[in-house]
Specification:
The structure holds 2 protein chains of 2 kinds.
Chain A (H helix, E strand, L loop, with lengths): L21 H23 L9 H23 L10 H8 L3 H36 L5 H22 L8 H7 L1
Helix pairs in contact in A: 1-2, 4-5
Chain B lengths: L1 H7 L1 H4 L1 H19 L5 H12 L4 H26 L8 H12 L3 H35 L3 H18 L4 H16 L1 E2 L6 E2 L13 H17 L19 H23 L5 H15 L13 H24 L5 H12 L6 H6 L1 H22 L3 H9 L2 H20 L2 H19 L5 H23 L4 H10 L1 H15 L3 H7 L3
Antiparallel strand pairs in B: 1-2
Helix pairs in contact in B: 1-16, 3-5, 3-16, 4-5, 4-14, 5-6, 5-7, 5-13, 5-14, 5-16, 6-7, 6-13, 7-11, 7-13, 7-16, 8-9, 8-12, 8-20, 8-22, 9-20, 10-18, 10-19, 10-20, 11-12, 11-13, 12-13, 18-19, 21-22
Classes of the chains: A mainly alpha, B mainly alpha.
């Protein structure tokens, strides 16, 4: 995997050039803000300064103004350094590399599987496969850690805090 | 006087009450450390099986859970950069960089000691100045709450070192997300897009787990090959010299915590951010730059959020008004036991007041003991190889989001916010203001509308009231100073550009 675009967390200075996809992301946020402003206006228009839609309009208007500011700021910073690659390849390599994409897909499938396979089944499968995907090759260790962790989570949430964890529609159908 | 002392010491001398306080504090620390398990949730569940108990037994357990839980949120913030509670958001700003350097043990030790100092300050204020502080808190008008909430959101954006414009955007986005659902005043639909499931709104806990937990896991995927930093846990208890060095800041931050905690609706989250801001402005030579592992960045928010616990009890005990969500639940518990929190509580049942103060002091002592133990086990978490740790965190996030309402929809929200949060982080946006915006949005909406109604819907009168009230003028000045201090003109004036 190529060097990641170090996310700009607390205190780190911003890069001199914008990151791949940054301008598109900022433009998307601005577009979303405009859409939400229109939606906020649709709640109650300008009928009163204390109407249900007034504060959402203030919030979305703030988003539109600030969104426009960072689109301009992003434009000023110049295009991303693609190091000889196409813009799309550069975005994939630095922002959504294959392992990121694979793991995110696994997470999405896990969330969907929760209601079908139940918490225990879906989580165990997810843990086992994603640990392997991320590079942990010791299957026995992975299985042991997964089982022990799930047992601890089950005891804390289901037994102590009475959280009814998903049983799974497929599992219930089998044992009905 | 002797009677007050007798009630104060009741939970210290009765072995069963002593045990319940210890158990509550211990459980609170671990509940607070698990994202998705909130103190409010724990206290609510406790009430369901303590309502048949004697009131003293229920109160000792609740006091322990409350104090332990507020502190516990800092552990996951330091070790994983996932705040266990909103009050620990500020702690993660410097705590997590310290864990990345292998100094998690020192960070947790210092956090524990300063939390205990803050806790004692809050309890002392409750015992000594409860009536006076309550009267001061009542002077806050809706417009003051509006400004206080805006200030809190701006602070988290400004404090985390990012762009103020992006911080404002993120805060406004959080406010907007909090508006989803039915308007509490008129029951009009806001951003529900005709979906029945959307009328209940979006849980800020699901969003918090998504923005901090899932997004952080996705960011960490870029650093899979980085070897886990070995944590130094050989010296957990901070030296007296170190504590003495930070004591003045801890005391000042505790003062902020008490006052903010005593404001109805403003809890430890705002208190911690304000204290962090105070530290950033007042400490000239921090141990490291703020945001990169400054000890002062741990001391201030942790002193403040635990001091806010004592502060939150003040309006609850003297006025019957909850200081935060947990005290709102405790008020419910007191009603269940036939007590009426408010001015008459102090007159009719003064013993209860001193009993609660005594229980809080005892819980704070247990906090010191339990806070300084078990750190080695916690530190092992960050030493776990990332291919094993990251999937485990994700499962914990999923179950935490699900536990909010036993509803898979919250898990989908968490995932959506997590992926969105990943891109926000990558492109330099702060996610803290989104969460603060979600938490404070309803308060801002309500306060804005109340303030506008009191100004008879006239914008000029609404604006004028910010200047005619001395209290409002002071808060407005502080708010404007926060904005101005992020501008290039301020940096030029301070000679930092």
């Amino acid at each position: 995997m190529s060097a990641p675009p170090r996310p700009q967390e607390g205190g780190e200075p911003g890069p001199p050039r914008r990151l791949p996809g940054e301008l598109a992301f900022c433009a998307l946020l601005l577009g979303l803000s405009l859409f939400l402003l229109w939606q906020a206006y649709g709640i109650s228009g300008f009928e009163s300064l204390t109407s249900a839609g007034m504060f959402p309009m203030l919030a979305t208007a703030t988003m539109v103004v600030t969104g426009a500011v960072f689109v301009v700021q992003s434009l000023r910073r110049g295009p991303a350094d693609s190091s000889g690659r196409g813009h799309w390849q550069s975005f994939v390599a630095r922002v959504t590399p294959p392992i990121w994409f694979g793991f995110t897909l696994a997470v999405c499938l896990y969330m969907l599987a929760l209601s079908r396979l139940g918490f225990v089944g879906a989580s165990f499968l997810f843990l086992l496969l994603s640990m392997r995907l991320l590079g942990s090759r010791r299957w026995l260790l992975n299985a042991g850690v997964s089982a022990a962790s799930l047992a601890a989570i089950y005891v804390v949430f289901q037994t102590i805090f009475s959280v009814v964890l998903p049983q799974g529609s497929w599992v219930q159908a089998v044992f009905r | 006087m002797m009677q007050a002392l007798e009630y104060f010491l009741m939970s210290w001398t009765d072995p069963y009450l002593l045990f319940l306080t210890a158990a509550g504090t211990f459980a609170g620390i671990y509940i607070g450390a698990i994202p998705g398990l909130s103190v409010t949730m724990a206290v609510s569940i406790l009430i369901s099986f303590t309502f048949k108990w004697h009131v003293n037994e229920a109160l000792t357990l609740i006091s322990g859970i409350f104090l332990g839980g507020v502190y516990g949120g800092s552990r996951s913030a330091i070790l994983l950069n996932i705040p266990g509670a909103p009050a620990a958001i500020a702690t993660g700003l410097d705590g997590y960089p310290l864990a990345k350097r292998g100094e998690a043990g020192m960070a947790i030790g210092l956090t524990t000691v300063t939390s205990v100092i803050g806790g004692f300050m809050g309890i002392a204020a409750l015992a000594v100045a409860a009536p006076a502080l309550s009267e001061f808190a009542l002077k806050f008008a809706p417009r003051d709450y509006l400004m206080l909430a805006i200030w809190g959101i701006l602070l988290v954006g400004a404090l985390s070192g990012g762009s103020l414009v992006k911080g404002i955007f993120a805060g406004a986005l959080g406010v907007l997300i909090s508006m989803v659902g039915l308007d509490p005043m008129t029951a009009e639909h806001r951003f529900t897009f005709g979906q029945v499931q959307m009328t209940a709104g979006i849980s800020y806990v699901a969003a918090m787990i998504g923005f901090f937990g899932v997004a952080e896991v996705l960011v960490q995927l870029h650093e899979l090959k980085t070897r886990a930093v070995r944590q130094d846990v050989s010296r957990i208890v901070p030296s007296w010299a170190r504590v003495r060095k930070h004591l003045p800041l801890s005391m000042r931050a505790s003062g902020i915590g008490v006052v903010v905690g005593a404001l109805p609706g403003a809890g430890g989250d705002i208190a911690a951010l304000m204290a962090y801001d105070h530290a950033k402005r007042s400490v000239k030579n921090p141990t490291r730059p703020f945001g990169q592992g400054a000890e002062e960045g741990l001391v201030a928010p942790e002193s403040a959020n635990n001091a806010a616990v004592g502060g939150a009890y003040i309006p609850m005990m003297t006025l019957g008004i909850p200081g935060d969500a947990v005290t709102a639940v405790i008020i419910g518990a007191l009603y269940i036991h036939g007590l009426k929190p408010g001015p008459m509580l102090m007159i009719e049942t003064p013993h209860l007041f001193w009993f609660i103060v005594g229980s809080l002091v005892l819980a704070n002592c247990f906090l010191l003991i339990f806070g300084l133990t078990g750190i080695k086990l916690f530190a092992k978490i960050v030493e776990t190889p990332k291919p094993i740790l990251l999937p485990l965190i994700l499962v914990l996030c999923a179950v935490g989001a699900y536990a909010i309402n036993n509803n898979p929809v919250d898990v989908y929200w968490m995932l959506g916010f997590g992926i969105f949060g990943y891109f926000l982080k990558i492109y330099g946006f702060q996610v803290g203001p989104v969460i603060l915006g979600m938490i404070l949005g309803p308060l801002m909406d309500k306060s804005y509308r109340q303030a506008m109604i009191s100004a008879e819907g006239k914008p000029a009168q609404f604006a004028a009231e910010f200047f005619t009230s001395p209290l409002s003028a002071v808060i407005l000045a502080a708010l404007l100073l926060t904005i101005f201090s992020q501008t290039v003109w301020w940096r030029r004036w301070r000679g930092t550009v």
